[in-house]
Design brief:
alpha/beta; Cytidine Deaminase, domain 2; three-stranded parallel sheet; about 15% strand; globular
Amino acid sequence: EASQKLSRWRLSGTTLLVTLEPCIMCAGAIILSRIDCVVFATADPKGGAVRSLYQILEDTRLNHRVEVREGIGQESAQLLLRHFFRARRHNKD
């Protein structure tokens, strides 16, 4: 949506705010779209590709650098995610 709103695929000058640490595919999309900064609230020890399992955005072989901030709003995000996944498990019936 951001690229459509800005009428360009490069999202330089933008910051992505997310509750959960981006996965490896999302990290790739962040690099390819040239997002300047990623802020995530809580780590993902099972699939995180920014700090937890991999550090894709810090790979110096890539052609784009991304600033990363983590832990902002962590408690709220963890609570939100806990409720979300609990509801998903409950509604599987």
